[in-house]
Structures are given as structure tokens and as C-alpha cells.
Amino acid sequence: MPRALLESLIGVPTQSLSNPNAAADGRRRLLLASLCALLAVLAAFLWQFLVVTFVYGGHWVGLFYTAEQTRVPPELADMSYRNKAGAYDGQFYRFMAHDPWMRKGYWRFMDNPRLRYRRILVPATAWLLAGGQRRFIDAAYVAGMLLWVFLGAYWLSRYALSVGRSPAWGLGFLLLPATLISIDRFTVDVALAALCVGFAWYARQDSPGRLYLILVLAPLARETGLLLLAAACLEALWRRRWRRCLLFATAALPALLWLRFVSAYLIAAGARLHPHLVPPWLFQYPLVGIAMKMFQPVSYPLGGLLLRVAQVLDVLALAGVLLAVSIALWRIFRRRFDAETIAALMFVGLAAMVSEPGYWGDVNGYGRVISPLFLLVALPVLTGGPRWTLLPVLLVSLRLGTQFGSQALSILRGVL
């Protein structure tokens, strides 16, 4: 068996097989990273359990944020919980998990079926974990979300260990906005965040086989995963690895074929699809839209002091986005052309593209979409970079943390 293939299968360099100390060290690193990942999963599950118990009366489906006015497929009506906090995207991904191949027509209950169905990875994972059995799918969705938390924390721990840092850094995956929002609202963004960590880890290890798998899955988690694929191709071109670039480009095929299937199916079924390939709100105010929103405070239904605090935190979170953009551009100007920096630049382009000021009024919206940028600009801290580059993710996560306040109070009252 070729040595490269053997290494890929067992995940340990073959030379370490004849070196007991190296093999033992490899097992120790694997164990430490796994323990940290399990701790992250335990923390996420404990928070969800407390929220479900004391906020949603024991109904786990409350985390899908299905509103009173939401039209629910009849088969799911007796299994749904109407969330008084309002609707959010998780409700549609739940419908997808129950009908991932569009055979039951649940797409008719979605706001934008073509947009939702191209993000098939998390719902399809839940369906597969449940063996397609309707009564198990909601529970399998919870398990699938925690699986992505495990993978994100595990890969981040492995990354930290590889540069001589504590594996406890893997717990930092819980602070990413995409992770926090997905834990709270069952959105699919935690999967792309985890795959982004896997991208950085396997790119650093120069492991093209595993990196290719990451690049296949990322666009199926969310279409912005294509930016990781573009970064991998550009990095290969920069290093004149022509064959690798061509190989990585083929990783887009599964997502493109799936999108083609979804579009063709919905058109044949008579669905009304969005008429514009490029939404009209793109590129209205490149990057300036973020700054404009800083001077257009959101009016929340809060009292005087609480309203001011929320608005100040909104401004700080938007400042965190601009700071992340500045850090990524600074590293490019410093001629750092590794995969992480190029990927960060791709998400800077995304931040510039989604530039309509109104988009930046909801931290739950932009926070999860831009999470890969926060992660990628923070990773160099592990290799000796300045710690202030953690500020972007901390500022956005601080704003998100305030949203958990009412839940924390309900939990506290229930416990006491």
C-alpha cells in the first residue's frame, strides 16, 4: 500500500509507527482534542437543556423558532411548538430535515425554497441520522448540531496543539457568533464555521485529501462555503500547484449539481423563484453600508438605559466587523498569502458585497454569515499573533450574549 494512502487512512504519519514515542504523542493529542470537543458539546447541550426546560416547557422543537403565524406542514402540526419570541430560519431547516428530497412538498411552507434547499448538509445529516423516520428526525437534528460543535472544537484543539498551545483553545469555538446563534436558533451556520476550522487545520497540515472533503461539504452547508473553495484554489495557484488547483475546483461540482436539481425540480413543480440572479441590494454601498448603519440606531422595545446599552453594543459589534476587515487587509498588504489569509480576504469581499445598511441592523444575521472572517483573523493568535485581533469576535459575541439575558433570567428563576 502506498505510504501516502496509508497515512490518509490512519491519520498518523507512517514514520511514527516505528517510533513509539511519536505514536504515543499522537494518541495523546487525539485524546486531549477529543476531550475538549466533548466538553464543548456538553456545555452547548447543557445550555440548550436548561433553555428547553425553563423557557420552552420541555419542548425541544421550541429552538426552531416556529412562530404563531408560520404555516406548518400538516404532518408536523402535532410535533411543533409555537415560539412566542417570533420566527427564525431554523423552522425552515426543520421542514427540510423532514423532507430533504422534496418528495412531500414541504417546500411550499418555506419563504424561499431554492435558497433554503441549497443549504442541504445539516438537514440531510439529521434525516440520515434518523434513518428517515419522522419521529426521530427532530432529535437527530439536535444530535447533528452537536456533532458540528464537536468537530469545530476538535479541529480547533488540534490546530492549537500543533503550534504548541493548550487544547483548551478549542473551547473558543463556542464563542463564534455562528455557533452561539445555531445553538440558540438551530440555524445551519455552525456547520460552515466548523468546516472553516477544518479548512484551516488541514491546509496547515498540507493534507489535500481531507481538505478536498472539507471543500466538497462547505458549499452544501451554505453557499458562502464556495469562498473557502476559491481560497484553496487561489492558494494553490500562488504556489504553482496547478494540478491541486484543478482538483480543488472539482469540489464545487456536488453543490452545483444539487443546486441544478433543486432549481429544476422547483420550476417543474410550479414554484415562484426569485427573478434576479444578483439581488438588487448587493454592492449598493460597499463597506460604507456598515459604517452608515452605525449612525442609524435600531429602536428596540426597551426602556431608556437598556435601549442605550443595546444600541452602543450594536455599534461596537459593527466596529468589530470593520476591525476584522482591516486586519485581513493588513495581512494581505504584509504579503501573507497562506490559505487562511486568502480565505479571510474572500469573506472581506462578502462583507463588501452585502452592503445595504439595513442588512447590518441584525447581529443574528450578519454575525453568523461573517463568522468565518472572525475566526480566520483570530487564528494567528495561536501562532504568536497579537491578542487584540480577538476583539472582532468578542465584540460581536458580546452583543449576542445580551440576547440570552432573558433566557438566563428564566433559567435562574426556575432553578431557584
Folded structure, characterized:
This protein has 416 residues and is an all-alpha fold. The chain folds into two domains: 30-273, no CATH class; 278-416, no CATH class. 63% of the residues lie in helices and 0% in strands. It is built from 19 helices and no strands. The chain has helices at 3-10, 20-54, 90-98, 113-117, 121-129, 134-162, 177-185, 189-204, 208-221, 226-238, 242-249, 253-268, 288-294, 304-333, 339-353, 363-369, 371-378, 391-403, 405-415. Helix 8 runs parallel beside helix 17 (371-378). It is globular, with a radius of gyration of 22 Å. The protein starts with a helix and ends with a helix. 40% of the residues are buried. The model is unreliable at 1-12 and 14-18 (pLDDT under 50).
Main attributes?
416 residues; mainly alpha; 19 helices; globular
Total helical segments: 19
What is the H/E string? Answer: HHHHHHHHHHHHHHHHHHH
Number of domains: 2
Gross geometry: globular
